[in-house]
Structure formats: structure tokens, C-alpha cells
Amino acid sequence: MPASPSAALLLLTLLMGTTAGAETPVPPWNAGVRQLELPAEPTGNEPEVHISPGVSTTLAFDAELLRDKEGKDTVGLEKREAFVLVDVGQATLRLLPSDTLKNGERLRLMVRFKDGAAPAGAAFTLVVHPARAERLLEVYRAPRTAASYQREAKEAKAEVQQCHEELERERAERGGPGGLTGLIAAEQMDNMGVSARMVTESVTKSPGNALVTLEVHSYRAAGRVVVELVVENPQGAQPWSAVGAMLTDRTGMELKVLPVWQRGFVETDRKRQHIVVEALATREEAQGSFTLKLWEAGMGRTVSLSGISFP
Predict the structure, then answer these.
(1) Which InterPro entries does this UniProt record tie to the protein (predicted)?
(2) How many CA atoms lie within 13 A of 298 on its CB side?
(3) Dihedral sign, CA of 244, 250, 256, 262?
(4) Contact predicate 137/148, CB 8 Å
(5) Taking 60 as the threshold, does the pLDDT of residue 172 lie above it?
(6) Residue 170 lies in a domain
(7) What is the pLDDT averaged over residues 140-156?
(8) Which structural domain range is residue 72 located in?
(9) Can you tell me whether residue 201 is helix, strand or coil?
(10) Closest CA to 262 of 243, 290, 280, 246
């Protein structure tokens, strides 16, 4: 079912960078490999590692992990029962958190090494985030290899290039004309125009969502996709505002999401608020079914919708 003309007009305005009431952009998420060097002597500062329910996080060490005389691992993990999988290998630790963990929850993780060299063990603080999980963390006791530094430098260079491209794009969009002319000037309008689709009936809503989702519309333009939500805040709930969003396909591939747009806090006395999530994506990248996750400041209440498709 096509979206209403008013909804399509709203999208055209949003695609041209109308940002009144928009949230402050959050820093881009680095989904690459993170390297960490352990000091020989404890400093009292435990590294934080972000984990997410249903997403695997692996810690790879450069030394074997200790096991007891019966061959059992000696990993100390707070609320271990809240993890679907705790897989301890010779020098790796894979964690798969369950949905029972709450956003913002902090858990302590301790490992011990087999050879007894300094440091004999390491402690980490696992921080539960609704979407942003660190997939791979390389932990070094000995000085890092040249290859690890080269990989880190390559990733940093790619991040700088990405930031430069985003800055140039934003400058071009903000300095250009508005309306349909602006879409053409920014090369976001091709001969396919802007396609719209109402996907409310095909979307699956998470039982723990902070907001009541009334309608879901999806849009596609040249190099862009948009998800527009029409929502309400449950009676008696605190005002809600999204500070971050993530769009992923069934394989876990993440689209590059731009700052979330909404007119203001979703209040309990203000019905049918709009929240708009825009992402950079080619037609090939935005095929199939996607899951949208939004979260508020402090990683508290979240909104999760799956089964979203684009025209």
C-alpha cells in the first residue's frame, strides 16, 4: 500500500536536511577490531567492553587461558547464567548475551592465564548496549606485533576518510537549494524518483518496546533509504527521545545511519509523533528484510522493529 501524499512530502523535506529539533549527532560506531594492551601491574582501571543481547563478542588473547585440574575454565563472569553461550577456547573467549540482560547493565569479567607471567590475569567491565556490541577485541600482554599496529593504522585512516566524506556531503547539502531542486542538486533524485511503501502490517514489534508504534513507512531515493515511524508514548511513561539508531539486515550488515530526526520529545499528552531514520544505501545494499533499533540516552528504553523492507 503506498504512503499518503503528505507523508511523501514530509520525506522530501527531511531528505534535504531539515534538522529543526534534531538530536545531536552521535559519534560514528567503529565496528572494526579493537586492540588492547594489558599493563604488567594492575592500575585499577578495568577496560570497558560493549556487548548486546543476541550479538556475539569474542576476546582473543595472545596467551593461553588457565584451566583447573579437571580441565574446567577459570573464567569469572558475573551473571553467567544470563549468557546463552560462554565458549572458552585455548586463547579465546566468546560471549553471547541473552535478552534477560538490561540496557546499561555492567558486569565484571575476569580471566587468568596459564603461564603465570605478568600480568597473571585481566579484568574487564562488560557494558550492555541495546545495539552496539564490540565483535572482536584483541588483548595483548606482550608488546603488540607490527601487523596489529598496521591494521589499526589502516582502520584509523579509513575512519578519517569516512569523516572527511561525511563532512563534504553535509556541507554540500546545507549549502544547496531546498525542495525537489535540492534533491536533484544533491544527486538524491534519479529517474525512479522517491518510492514509498507502508510496511506497518509486515513489521514485528518487540514486546519490550518503549513506544507504541502506530504506522511504519519506508522510502527509497537514489543512494538513500528512510524509515518513518508514527508513534505514541504509553500513558504515564516518561518523555522519550532517540539518541541513536541502527539498521541491519538478516546477515548483520549495518547501514550507515544519519542522525535521527524527531520534532521533540515523545510526550504522553502529544499523540502521533514522527520519528525518521535515514541511512545511506545503494539499491543492492537495501534489499531484503531489515531490523531497526532505536535507543534513548543512557541506553535505557529502546524500540526494536523487524521485518522492514524498502520499495
Answers:
(1) Mxa_paralog_2268
(2) 4
(3) negative
(4) no
(5) no
(6) no
(7) 69
(8) 39-140
(9) helix
(10) 243
Q: Which residues pair with 168 in a beta bridge?
A: none
C-alpha cell belonging to residue 143: 608488546
The answer to whether residue 166 is domain-embedded is no
Q: Are residues 192 and 287 in the same domain?
A: yes
* Phi and psi, residue 169, nearest 5°: -65, -45
How many domains is the chain built from?
Answer: 2
The amino acid that residue 207 corresponds to is P
CB 270: neighbour CB atoms within 10 A?
13
Q: What does the mean pLDDT of the chain come to?
A: 82
**13 CB contacts (<8 Å, ≥6 apart)?**
none
pLDDT at res. 24? 37
Question: Is there a single domain that holds both residue 53 and residue 23?
Answer: no
Residues in the chain: 311
Other residues' Cβ atoms within 10 Å of the Cβ of residue 78 = 13
pLDDT higher than 90, residue 212:
yes
How many Å apart are CA 42 and CA 174, to the nearest integer?
49
CA pseudo-torsion sign 257, 260, 266, 270: negative
